Amino acid sequence: MPDNQNLLEIRDLHVSVEETEILKGIDLTVKLGEVHAIMGPNGSGKSTLANVIAGKPGYFVDSGEIFYKGSNIVSIEPDVRARSGIFLAFQYPVELPGVRTWQFLKSAVVRSVQLVSSAVSGPVGNNGYGRTQCHNQLLQ
C-alpha cells in the first residue's frame, strides 16, 4: 500500500518501447513538498520515465506500479492524468504572437480546475455514472 505522504511513488517499474526494454526496475519516491531532478546521460531513460508517468501511448509498462496521490495510475488514461495534474510541457514552447507564456499557463490551470470541479460533482458521459473511486482520488 502506498504512503499517503507520497505525491509520487514508483515501484520496480519496467517499461518497453517497441519490444525493447528501456526502464529496468526503477524505484522513486517523491514526498509532498519535495522537488527532485532526474539527471543522466542521453539514452538513460529520463524521457521514457516522464512519458510513462504522463501516459503517452507507445510506452508499455511490463511490470511495476506508479502511484500518484495514493492511486495506481498505470491503467488510467492520459487525459484523466492530465486533469489530475500530471502532464508534460514543452521545454521550449512555440511562441504564440500576442500570448504570453504565463497567460497561457494560467488559462490552462483555470480550465483544469473547472474541469475537475465539474467532473467530481456530476456524472460523466452518457451512462449516468460518476467517476470511479480511483478517478475521484486523482481529481482531488
Give an overview of the whole structure:
The protein has 140 residues and is α+β, with helices and mostly antiparallel strands. 31% of the residues lie in helices and 25% in strands. It has four helices and four strands; from the N terminus they run ββαββααα. The protein has helices spanning 46-54, 78-84, 101-121, 133-138, and strands spanning 6-17, 20-31, 60-68, 71-72. A four-stranded antiparallel beta sheet has the order 2-1-3-4. β3 and β4 form a beta hairpin. The longest helix is centred in the last third of the chain and has 21 residues, at 101-121. It is globular. The two termini are 19 Å apart.
List the helices and strands and how they pair.
Blueprint: E1 6-17, E2 20-31, H1 46-54, E3 60-68, E4 71-72, H2 78-84, H3 101-121, H4 133-138
Antiparallel strand pairs: 1-2, 1-3, 3-4
In this structure, how is the largest beta sheet organized?
4 strands, antiparallel
Structural class: alpha+beta
Radius of gyration: 17 Å
Mean pLDDT: 81
Shape field: globular
Fraction of residues in H or I helices: 25-40%
Low-confidence stretches: 123-135
The percent range for strand residues is: 25-35%
What is the string of SSEs from the N terminus onward? EEHEEHHH
Strand order of the largest sheet: 2-1-3-4
Number of strands: 4
Oligomeric assembly: single chain
Q: What's the number of helices?
A: 4
- Termini, distance in Å? 19 Å
